[in-house]
Amino acid sequence: MKNLFAAFLVLSCCFCATAVAQERGQGATRMERPNVKPTLFANLGDENYTPDGMAVHTQTGALYLNVPNFGLTDDSNKKINSAQGGYLYEVGKDGKLTKILEYPVLERTGQAGPMGIANGPDGNLYVCDNQYFHDKDYCSRILRVVCENGKPTGKVQVVIEGLKLANGMAWFGDKMFFTDSCFDIDSDEAAGILGSGGVFMFTLDELKDAGTDGNAPIKIKAGPDDSHCVAYQKVVKLGRGDNTGPDGICVDKDGNVWFGLFGNGFIFCLRPDANGEYKKENVENVFDALNQPGVQRGPYQGLKLECCDGICYNEKLNRIFIDDSVNNAIWMFKPCAKGETIRPTILWKNDDSDGMDGLLDQPCEAIVFDGKLLIVCFDWPFPGMVNGKVDPPGTICAIDFAEIEKLVQRQEQFQGQRGNAPRANGDRSRGGRVNGNRNQENGRRRAGRQQNENR
Ligand SMILES: [Ca+2]
Ligand SMILES: [Ca+2]
Ligand SMILES: [Ca+2]
What we know:
Blueprint: H1 2-24, E1 39-43, E2 54-56, E3 63-67, E4 87-91, E5 97-102, E6 114-119, E7 125-129, E8 140-148, E9 151-163, E10 166-172, E11 175-180, E12 193-203, H2 204-207, E13 218-219, E14 229-236, E15 246-251, E16 257-261, E17 267-270, E18 283-287, E19 311-314, E20 319-324, E21 329-333, E22 345-349, E23 363-369, E24 372-377, E25 395-400, H3 401-418, H4 443-453
Parallel strand pairs: 9-13
Antiparallel strand pairs: 1-25, 2-3, 3-4, 4-5, 6-7, 7-8, 8-9, 10-11, 11-12, 12-14, 15-16, 16-17, 17-18, 19-20, 20-21, 21-22, 23-24, 24-25
Helix pairs in contact: 1-3
The site of one calcium ion has 7 residues, from loops.
C-alpha cells in the first residue's frame, strides 16, 4: 500500500512537472504562461478610455461594445473629453470600431453610463445604464437598443428605472437577469459588512411593452423588496475594503445563474427550482473569498481572488471566466454541482500596464468571439488595484481560445490522475462539499466547521 502510494506520488509529480513545463513553453519566464499571453485586439482610440460590456448578437454574430467613459470626469462628476451618453460600437473581427450610437442621457444628470449588454430573444440589445457615478439616488436604468433584423435602428428606449448601480446583464431563454451592485443598506462597519446589492430577473413578457412608444418604463422598488429581486447579498469587508456588491453575471447551459461580488470576490450560484423559478432562498455561496487559502503553488502562489468584475460562460469548455479588476488577472472555474464549491484557477495575470502591449489594464468584461477570449480593460482604477492610472487609449486584448482549451485539457488530465473532487485553489485541507446553503454573514464560523468536517 505504502509503495503504491509512493508510486502514485512520483507519477503525479512527474505529470505535474511536465504540465508546468508545457505551460511555460520554451524560453518563458517563470511568471508567465506564454501560450495564453494576451495580445492587443483593439486600440479603441483616445476617445474611448473606459470601455465595458460586450455582446455577440445571436442573429448576426456581430460583436457590440459599450463605452461609458467614466474614467475622466470634472469636479461635478461630469465626463470630459467624450460624449456624455457614452457610446455603442460594433467591433469587427479585425478589432476596428464602427460607431453605432451615443446613448440618450438621463435628464437629471446629463449623463449615461452604458455597462453590461446582452441580446434578448426579441432580437433587441438590453443595456445597464449605470448612473451611480453621477447620482447615487437610484436613478440607474435598463435600456433597450431597438434592433431590426439583428441591427440597431438607432432608437433607444428606457425599459426599467429605479436601480442604484446597474452593472452586469445576461439573458437565458425568455428571462433577463441583471445586477445592481449597490443598495447601500444593511451595512455595519463594526461587523465588517460594508455594503449590499442584488440580482433582478424579468421575463420578456413582463417588459416587452415597457418604454415602447406611449408606454412608461417599469419603475422598480429600491433594494431587495421588489418581487423581481432574486438574490440579495451583503459585502463582507475584505482586501481593499470595497463595498460594491453583485457585478458580473452569466447563465450556464442548465439555466444556473452565476454571479460574483466586485468588492470581495465571493461567487454565488442561483439554480432554478423544480418549477423553473428563481428564488432568493436558493442562492448558494460557491466561493468563500474570506476563507480561501490562496493559490497554493506555482508562479502565482499566495494570490487570492478578492474581486469579481464581469464573468462569462463558455458552453464548449464548460468554464466561467472571471475578470479580477484588482489583480489585473483572469481566473476560470468549472461550474459545480449543487452543494459543492468551485475551484478558481488563474489563467493569466500581469503587472501594471497601459494596455498598449496587449496586457491586462484592469480587466472588466470578457467574451468568446472568433476563436479568442476577448477581454475589455476598464482602466479606471480604485485605490489598492494593480492598475495605477487612467491611460487612454482604451484597449481590448485577446487570448487564443485554442490555447485555453489545451490548458483546460491538461488540467483535467492532471485532476483525473489525482482523482480529486473540486477544491478551493487546490488546498488539500478543504473538501468540495458544503452542507446546505452558505452565506457570507456566517462565512467565518461555517468555514471553520467545514474544515473540521473534512479532517
Ligand atoms: Ca462590471
Ligand atoms: Ca489604458
Ligand atoms: Ca491604466
